[in-house]
Fold this protein.
Amino acid sequence: MKFTPTAILPILAFLLSTAGCSSTTASISPAKYEEMNCAELNNAVGDTATDISRTAIARGKVVSTSVPNWLLGGERVKTVVANRETARIERLQLQQQVIVATRSQRCPSAQ
């Protein structure tokens, strides 16, 4: 496959647009989950699982993107974006663990 400058622009736009999205995860506050009922906690677990899957898919697309050798810094940008997505996945997994722990304490049907 031959890369031209116009073919690489969508790839760069994707990489740059996803670079800023990884820091939008809300802080993990156990007190926030203490106020939720069991149904809301179940929804929160599902929403977090969806976010984890979505972020993992985006990370996979970034990792599998082929960056041409003539694009200076392209591999570095790709690595930075993938690392940010990995960090976001780790934060989401921690958030999910807090939700699951809260749910198991408060909801007898969750055990």
In short: The chain is about 70% helix and 0% strand.
